[in-house]
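W.,

You were right to be curious about this one. When I first looked at the sequence I had no strong expectations either way, so I just let the prediction run and decided to look at it fresh. Below is the sequence, 168 residues in total, followed by the output.
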Amino acid sequence: MVGRTGVDSGTAKFITRAVAVLGGMAAIVIALILQLVAATGARVGLSATYLLLAVTPAATEEPLKQLGVLIVALKQPRWIRTKRDGLAVGALAGLSFGVAESLFYVIGGAGVERILSICMHIGASAVGGLGMFYASKRKYMSMLGWLGLAVVIHFLWNYIAITIAFVL
């Protein structure tokens, strides 16, 4: 059935999901650049570096992964009709980002533990995608709350992973 946008619902779902996947993959490049800028510009001690390693990726990656989905939510709000739609496209953005990021790490010598990181990206981005559902309803404070929760989840993951890496 063709909607008010002139696009049938199957095509709208495909476009929304494609935007989520491609946006997640594009976010890796932008996040890497922002994180390199933050790392090279910071002349801080070990404890601040430790915190920077936990905060910067979470604060850059989570919003960037949702950018394409946010554009869809604002331009075509009917394409993200339910919370389930938001969770699904958010999870797709996280999956594509996590796979792309893990490929970089595996090429650099990391091992299969990266699979857990992919799971974190899927989960945190699904939470952020719920925020994109609220953006499609023009409930921006709710959107920011869910996106903020995604950043916190990512930050906690990073903090624990860095703590384990430094301690062990």
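Here's what jumped out at me. The chain has five helices and no strands. And, maybe more interesting for your project: The chain has a mean pLDDT of 85.

Coffee later to discuss?

I.
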